[in-house]
Amino acid sequence: MSSPVSVFTPEESRAIKQSWKALTADGLLPVGLLLFERFFADVPQVRHMFSGTGIHGDENSPKENFSMETLRENDKFTKHAEGVAAKLSCLVDNLDNTPAVMNICSELGQAHKMYNVKPEYFDRLGGVLLDVLQAAMDVGLDHPTIQAWKKAYEVIAGATKPYL
Question: 59: domain range?
Fold first, then answer.
């Protein structure tokens, strides 16, 4: 029986897995919330897509302007944030099995299609992920681990976006 195919070198795979383990040492929810906090700051036009969380604004505070503190108190939103980090963990766990990653990404794309998620939002989320990792590791964009993550996210986004 042959081993699964991977597009990553052993060094890239190890760097991604070790950095993700370090980032998620305090759990998945803090990482998911941090990703969304940065994502909403960088791409505020996506906030409206989270109306399914049950948060409703009024004329003085439309839902697009709700603070992260408000969102952190919303069970549906925190469940989604934790789910995003869990899906990233699943992808990291399967990093050395490209067919499994492709399958996870197709499911991810199909799940987001019903919400009219634009392909460019996945690209922007990738930038946020890289920024979060770079800040957590206190390294530059040229660091080998960040470059490995960049490659990984390009694979993930490339396999997900056709299904949106």
Answer: 10-163
- CATH number, residue 29: 1.10.490.10
Task: Summarize the chain as % helix, strand, coil (round to 5).
Answer: 75, 0, 25
Question: In this predicted model, what pLDDT tens digit does every residue of 121-144 receive, in sequence order?
Answer: 999 999 999 999 999 999 999 999
In 3D space, the residue among 41, 15, 90, 18 whose CA is nearest the CA of residue 33 turns out to be 41
pLDDT of residue 63: 53
Question: What are the structure tokens assigned to 147, written together?
Answer: 């470059």
Average pLDDT over residues 95-101: 94
SS3 category, 65: helix
Cβ atoms 2, 145 nearer than 8 A? no
Contact yes or no for 71/77 (Cβ under 8 A): yes
Four-point Cα dihedral 9, 11, 12, 16, nearest 10: 140
Q: Tell me, what amino acid is at 87? A: K
Q: How many domains does the chain fold into?
A: 1
What is the pLDDT at residue 58?
A: 45
As given in the structure block, the two tokens for residue 145 are 């681990």
Evaluate the CA torsion angle 60, 77, 88, 106 in order and state its sign.
negative
Enter the pTM of the model. Answer: 0.90
Domain contains 148: yes
